[in-house]
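Q: I'm building a small set of examples for a reading group on sequence design. Run inverse folding on the following structure and report the sequence directly after it, with nothing in between.
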């Protein structure tokens, strides 16, 4: 069984071609330029529409297969930006109809978890999912993947990118922030905002920008931003792990490529006798292969998405997904 997966929730259009053993035959992505500020949903959707067909042809060629070899079409059904999601869903429906193969709508957050579980071979992890638009701690409990904690305002990556844009770092700012943070020496005081199991980043951003105007060294601010925000993520992740009594922590989302974040999570895990798992970077960011793989997992459990229920779900919650393959 070969599945073609389409990812289009936000900045990135991605096409993955994956087989039933999770051999990743192709995984191509194209991202809209976000350097000029937040993304405009309609512009991003136009970007995805323009790039989708050529990217799909390239992915098929890269995989060394033909369209007739595709046995299943999966797409990101949500959560995400409506116009972006609809672009991917429309292409998925058209492809599934023209090939005469089943269609599967996939929850984007569940896909981050499923691809990580498969490629790192952890079994029942707590996922720290830290990306541009999302920041969530997710674990399997009572038959569903539950969100134990999440951001109350922006995703951590968006906060980092906003900070970077304001202080003149290139986009996306995460890797530049990480590099500058290594030169930082002074830990400046920033608001540590963990509320219950949730986190918030906009107050930290405001404080960091004020300190920058007051002349604090950029290296120190980058260092302090990382230390403060990552400590918040690690605290919530650890509490979720303790609550569900799990000894595996899986990382997902673009921000987890940060070495300092990985180090902090690893230390926390080791101190609890737990283990950390990090998928390769191309599978941490938004990509089509994770959608294709999750499509296969769902298909093998007998799930399919009829055309009538293939509408996009902008606020598709992680815990709405039934998980027969976990039973
Ligand atoms: P989603 O729709 O899941 O929110 P996204 O497209 O917004 O996804 P990803 O592709 O998962 O986000 O990740 C991009 C984000 O990761 C950007 O905000 C970028 O600045 C951040 N990032 C990338 N590398 C690093 C790093 N080394 N340190 C910190 N942040 C990083
Ligand atoms: Fe994502």
């Amino acid at each position: 069984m070969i599945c073609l997966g389409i990812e289009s929730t936000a900045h990135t259009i991605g096409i993955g071609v994956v087989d039933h053993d999770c051999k990743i035959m192709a995984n191509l992505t194209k991202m809209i330029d976000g350097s000029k500020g937040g993304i405009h949903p309609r512009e991003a959707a136009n970007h995805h529409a323009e790039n989708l067909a050529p990217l799909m042809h390239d992915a098929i060629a890269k995989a060394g297969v033909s369209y007739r070899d595709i046995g299943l079409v999966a797409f990101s059904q949500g959560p995400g930006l409506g116009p972006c999601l609809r672009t991917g869903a429309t292409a998925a429906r058209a492809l599934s109809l023209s090939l005469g193969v089943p269609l599967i709508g996939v929850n984007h957050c569940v896909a981050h978890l499923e691809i990580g579980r498969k490629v790192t071979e952890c079994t029942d992890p707590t996922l720290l999912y830290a990306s541009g638009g999302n920041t969530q701690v997710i674990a399997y409990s009572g038959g569903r993947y539950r969100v134990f904690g999440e951001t109350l305002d922006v995703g951590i990556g968006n906060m980092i990118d906003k900070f970077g844009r304001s202080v003149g770092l290139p986009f996306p700012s995460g890797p530049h922030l990480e590099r500058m943070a290594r030169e930082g020496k002074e830990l400046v005081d920033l608001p540590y905002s963990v509320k219950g199991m949730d986190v918030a980043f906009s107050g930290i951003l405001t404080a960091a920008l004020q300190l920058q105007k007051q002349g604090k060294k950029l290296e120190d601010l980058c260092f302090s931003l990382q230390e403060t925000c990552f400590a918040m993520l690690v605290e919530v992740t650890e509490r979720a792990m303790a609550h569900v009594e799990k000894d595996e922590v899986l990382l997902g989302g673009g921000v987890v490529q940060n070495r300092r974040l990985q180090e902090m999570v690893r230390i926390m895990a080791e101190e609890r006798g737990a283990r950390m798992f990090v998928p390769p970077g191309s599978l941490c960011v938004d990509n089509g292969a994770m959608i294709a793989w999750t499509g296969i997992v769902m298909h093998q459990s007998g799930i399919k998405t009829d055309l009538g229920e293939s509408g996009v779900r902008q606020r598709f919650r992680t815990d709405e997904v039934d998980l027969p393959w976990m039973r």
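The chain has a mean pLDDT of 97.
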